[in-house]
Amino acid sequence: MVITKVISEEQYKQLIGAAGVSLVLFSAEWAEQCKQISDVMNELAKQEEFKAVQFLDVPAEDFAQVSLRHQIDSVPTVLFFRAGTAIDRIDGVDVGSLTQKAKKYASAPAPASSTGGSANLEERLKSLINRSKVMIFMKGDRNTPRCGFSKQLIAITNETGVEYDTFDILTDEEVRQGLKTFSNWPTYPQVYVNGELIGGLDIIKELLEGGELKETLNP
């Protein structure tokens, strides 16, 4: 098995939609770190235990819409798919994690199809949303935001003095993708109050400028 260089969005959809596990590297030629991850994936692809795994390389800048859809903020980023569904990701260079997760998903049997799967995810999302009166879904956590938008949101929220909890979407791809559909809100961070979506950073800034933020977060 070798790494397949994706050359069209149609090809991309067909490949990740195939049965089994796919490792997709979003890369850029100018980023030296991508070469490091590509070399590791090439070595994995040669090993017998990964013979059923697809290894794909997607030029992130050439596939802008695909990158936007998967919130690829930097390269390298590796997404793990099973039968078209994103199940995990690694942002940045983490060779140890890449190897560990590749082995994990290559050896794990595909979950049995079940009509209860989406219902179970919905119940889990509802539980997470209501874990705290004010719940923020973000990249990183309140102590270590991992993107500029999340960092700004935490700084603004801290100024209100309102108690809140956070969930790091980078640790759970199922929640990351599922919540976008559940809330019909395609980007992060997302802020919920009493189980209801308030919005993202732009909405929070508007509420702050209008003097309504603290009242909204603490009704």
Automatic annotation (TrEMBL):
One Pfam family named in its UniProt record: Glutaredoxin
Please state every residue range assigned to the domain named Glutaredoxin: 134-198
User: Biological process (GO) annotations?
Assistant: intracellular iron ion homeostasis
Q: Which PROSITE patterns match?
A: GLUTAREDOXIN_2
Which CDD domains does the entry mention?
GRX_PICOT_like, TRX_PICOT
Q: What are its GO cellular component terms?
A: cytosol; nucleus
Thioredoxin domain location: 5-98
Q: Which Gene3D superfamilies match?
A: Glutaredoxin (3.40.30.10)
Domain of life per record: Eukaryota
Q: What span is annotated as the signal peptide, if there is one?
A: none
SUPFAM superfamilies from the entry? Answer: Thioredoxin-like
Under the heading NCBIfam families, the entry gives:
Grx4 family monothiol glutaredoxin
Name the record gives this protein = Uncharacterized protein
The organism encoding this protein is: Anopheles atroparvus (European mosquito)
